[in-house]
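Make up an example, fold above all:
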Amino acid sequence: MLPAEERHRRKCLICRHPDREEIEEEFVNWHDVWYLAKHYNISDHRSIYRHARATGLIVRRRENMRQVLDSIIERRPDRVTADSVIRAIRAYSCLTDDNRWVEPSSRVEFAVTKPAPQSQKAPPSNGANGPLRDAEGGNLIPPLGLETNVSD
């Protein structure tokens, strides 16, 4: 055993607690740490986190994400919002069996349609090739010889 582990076991309140196994099990299953401290008469809830980091329970807890999502989905309506339930369900659908996050595949298709061109008679032009037109047939530059009114 490493010296750090020995020191932890010697000093840790959780390691010496008679209900250590129950505390660890409830921690891994996402029970509220404040509740655990109160229920098991532990004066400082941070000692549970210190114990969890030292013994690797934090990693086991993170691997058990479905448990926390289940608790959100199953709670009474007055304790959670509809938005949080929907988000939990979405998160649940993105977790694989080994708790890896995988975004669902999505495919987006865009369809661009243009209205059919309408036949229009071109206005008479004084230019050799007629007025300059845009793609829809509108005049971009007035034909030569026509006056434009510009007011100041």
Summary: The CA atoms of residues 127 and 136 lie 20 Å apart. The chain has a mean pLDDT of 77. Strands lie at 132-133, 139-141. The helical segments are 3-11, 20-28, 33-39, 46-55, 57-62, 65-74, 82-94.
